[in-house]
Amino acid sequence: MVGNMDEKRTGILRGVGITRSFGRHSALAGVNVEVEAGRCLAIIGGSGSGKSTLVRILLGLDSPTSGSVDYRGLPVSGPRSAGYRALRRESGLVFQNPFASLDPRWTVGRSIAEPLAIGGGHSGDNSSDHAVSGRKNTDGWSARLGGLFGMGGRRRLSHDRLRGRAARALALTGLDPAEFLDRYPADLSGGQAQRVAIARAVVAEPNIIAADEPMSAIDVAARLQILDAFAAIREQRPNTALIIVSHDLGVVQHIADRILVLHEGLIEQEGTVAEVLGNPTSDYTRQLVAAAQW
Amino acid sequence: MSVSIRDLGIVIGSQTLVSDVDLDIADGERVGLIGSSGSGKSMISKAMLGLTPDDAVLSGSVNLSGVEAVGADEVTLADLRGRYVGTILQDPFSSLNPVTTVGRQIELPLRLHYRLSKAERAGRVRRMLAKVGLDAGLADRHPNELSGGQAQRAAIATALITSPRLIVADEPTTALDSIAQRQIVDLLVRLVDDSGASMLFITHDFSVLARATTRAYVLEHGRVVESGATSDLLAKPSTPQAGRLVGAARKLALE
Amino acid sequence: MAQHDMLPAETVHDGRLGISDVVAGSCQADAVGPAGAEGSPQGRDSSPRPALHTPDEPVSLKGLGKLAVVLRSMWSQGEGRFALVVLACWIVVSLASIVWTPKKLWETDGYHVWAPPSADHLLGTDGTGADVFSWLMAGARTNLLIAILSVMLAGVVGVTLLMAMVSRSKMVSAISVVAVDALISIPTVLIALILAVPMGASIAVIILACGVGYGLNLARIARPQALLAAGSDYAVSARASGASGGYVLFRHVLPNSLPSIMVQLSLSAGTAILAESGLTYLGVGVPSGVPSWGHSLSTSVKLIDVYPLTVVWPGLTVTVVVVALNLFGDVLRQAIDPIVNTALRKVAA
């Protein structure tokens, strides 16, 4: 139905005129964003620039004060909207601090498989819209009860399948499943834990992976491994869109296709990596470029 | 203040965190300590301040201008810490007390270690705020009203208010955004050089180390694997550990 | 519609699972090694798939292994050993008392009242000439029942309220927080006295009063830890994957609040034992004639000046058991928590 409308476009997630205020403070003031399938968008800005808020709004995890978000042509407006529900199955999230984003009392394997256990897993590409249109039943009571008791609704995957897919996702990030699946987060280094978090974000084969400062809590040597993990995802899942939020132009230069510079809730500059790095048009962008230089 | 660490070992339970570390800082020198997380670099700085956990067993010697810190009593250590050594930690929001105003926190080391009139203290705090580039009006604010960069400037002011002879900066830029990182490093270098103090700068990032220090030690698994002039380490690291750290930092910086 | 949606999707998964054959192949090869080396029952699994997964059989073995690790780490501490021994004795004595006590409970000897300990009466006799030791043995099972049922009720009441208090629904959480704060100000004894009006003196009064009272305490004390888990990134992450509020509460919030719940519940068990003594003394607890430690205490306490020994035995029993329960909770919390207990983490691996 609605899903067919934008089939030809490459932009799968769009935010138009997004404004978000917290009391008197305005975190975002009319931002337009378009995330394209198979591309990597870097949202760059300092602390307080509104970049994390923007990502949460794009993924439907926060509501804009005004403006609209749509995913594959479906409106994302509150938990009942079609776009929101589709995003829950078809997006993955990576946080800044991996130790805060992994349940300390769950094993790595269980954490990675969680999106599958909850949703049953997404079919993994964006050509078929049956996954969007015909899903009402899985949101019914039986699925909710199933979810409550960890049975993952109707499309329940067996323990073995969950584990197998968790292993594959983990292997994609460069960690050996045989060694890491049964560990607890307490026995991981920061870089390893972040790769586990990435494996969880990618396990359900989402259309969009959003990472909010995925490298700033990790030491420099391990950041390269995180970048490698993202690069591997882009190679193996060429249709996956990647949104990487960072304060550092240096860390995204190798992975991003486009850069969006955000400053005090407004877009300062937007363009390809070469455009932004080669020709910073605003004062703030110039500062960012200078700060990332050796 | 000069620092001379010889044969330092730190063991907690069955775990050896630091072993055979020799490290020297000359008067007025800015020295770096670089390694990945878990390499033991913070533990060394804690040993210098006598702040290692109670169950840590220290061996060897940490000599701060003639005062031995390993096995020193609490009175000596407390005097050393506040008066002669200033410390700056990674997260300014957890190193600043959230219920006290910024001005009172900057003032605290003065109250603890020196007998000064209220007006004298206020004057010093005002001058210190100007030095770290903070508006005088911020003295009456609470830490949660500051940005990360401002809070770290306040933490630097607190560390430097007693004009310490040694600054220990433990990953002071890691929690900040890239623009604030540059500003804080440059500020710290300027203030340390102006005051003639020595500095031990701890980081995992060679691009920060390159700006902050003239000489550095590379640490891995609690041991020093390489040391030398920072520029030499950057140009031709001779160990794979140093090479990896330099390579990663270069790759993540813009040309 | 549902089937149409479901079936193709399942098969589609199979087709697209492979990230790449190289990656999948290598990780499977890695996994086979250790599984075979352990000589686990996986070897008998004739499934053609090289097993990355652990079949159900070893899971239960793993469960047993975990239990062994938990018990061993409890036993390795002095407090834990004391608690385990006392609690084991308590249970054994309770069970034994059903079939055997040294003397019949109602076998009284008018010529030997308030007798000191002797070979015939191990701990002496009380004011009716009944054997104190036998009554304490029989009392053990009443108190065990009270402790278990109070803790279960406190657990149900407490966890329900806790989940309501950290619920994402602002109305539910606000109402439950106010309700808990208001109800917690009513003393447990008062609840018992009110309940005793319609119910009379009965074990149910103790269980209801303790269960509700301690449930309220549990909810309030575990709330900070639960709020932390409810607001954590892993909870956000689960919700971002489409998890319901109930899923997050029961899969993340509850397990992560378990340490403080465990401690609070074992404290509750101890306090329930103490409350039994107090309420029975007040005459609203265990009805007269039913053996319990509180009963033994209250019948002998009136003559404490003259015959202190008969009070000492039940008093000592209650004290030792309460101390054991308090220690038990603390030791158990550390033993079952994978964050604290490194040995437990290794069993999984």
UniProtKB/TrEMBL annotation, chain A:
Keywords: ATP-binding, Hydrolase, Nucleotide-binding, Transport. Residues 118-138 are annotated as: Disordered. It comes from the Bacteria. Residues 13-289 form the ABC transporter domain. Its EC number is 3.6.3.24. It holds the Pfam family ABC_tran. The keyword NADP does not apply. InterPro entries: AAA+_ATPase (IPR003593), ABC_transp_ATP-bind (IPR050319), ABC_transporter-like_ATP-bd (IPR003439), ABC_transporter-like_CS (IPR017871), P-loop_NTPase (IPR027417). SMART domains: AAA (SM00382). Gene3D superfamilies: P-loop containing nucleotide triphosphate hydrolases. GO terms for molecular function: ATP binding; ATP hydrolysis activity. Transmembrane segments: none annotated. GO terms for biological process: transmembrane transport. The keyword Transport applies. It is an enzyme of class 3 (hydrolase). This is ABC transporter, ATP-binding protein. It comes from Bifidobacterium bohemicum DSM 22767. The lineage of its organism: Bacteria, Bacillati, Actinomycetota, Actinomycetes, Bifidobacteriales.
From TrEMBL, chain B:
PROSITE patterns: ABC_TRANSPORTER_1 (PS00211), ABC_TRANSPORTER_2 (PS50893). This is ABC transporter, ATP-binding protein. It is a peripheral membrane protein. GO terms for cellular component: plasma membrane. One of its GO terms (molecular function) is ATP binding. Pfam families: ABC_tran. SMART domains: AAA. Gene3D superfamilies: P-loop containing nucleotide triphosphate hydrolases (3.40.50.300). The keyword Transport applies. It is an enzyme of class 3 (hydrolase). It comes from Bifidobacterium bohemicum DSM 22767. Keywords: ATP-binding, Cell inner membrane, Cell membrane, Hydrolase, Membrane, Nucleotide-binding, Translocase, Transport. Coiled coil: none annotated. It is found in: Cell membrane. Residues 3-246 form the ABC transporter domain. Belongs to the ABC transporter superfamily. It comes from the Bacteria. Its EC number is 3.6.3.24.
TrEMBL record, chain C:
The chain crosses the membrane at residues 82-100, 144-164, 171-195, 201-219, 261-286, 306-328. Keywords: Cell membrane, Membrane, Transmembrane, Transmembrane helix, Transport. InterPro entries: BP-dependent_transpt_permease (IPR050366), MetI-like (IPR000515), MetI-like_sf (IPR035906). One of its GO terms (cellular component) is plasma membrane. Residues 140-329 form the ABC transmembrane type-1 domain. It is a multi-pass membrane protein. Its main location: membrane. Coiled coil: none annotated. It is found in: Cell membrane. Residues 30-58 are annotated as: Disordered. It comes from the Bacteria. PANTHER family: D,D-DIPEPTIDE TRANSPORT SYSTEM PERMEASE PROTEIN DDPC-RELATED, OLIGOPEPTIDE TRANSPORT SYSTEM PERMEASE PROTEIN APPC. This is ABC transporter, permease protein. It comes from Bifidobacterium bohemicum DSM 22767. The lineage of its organism: Bacteria, Bacillati, Actinomycetota, Actinomycetes, Bifidobacteriales.
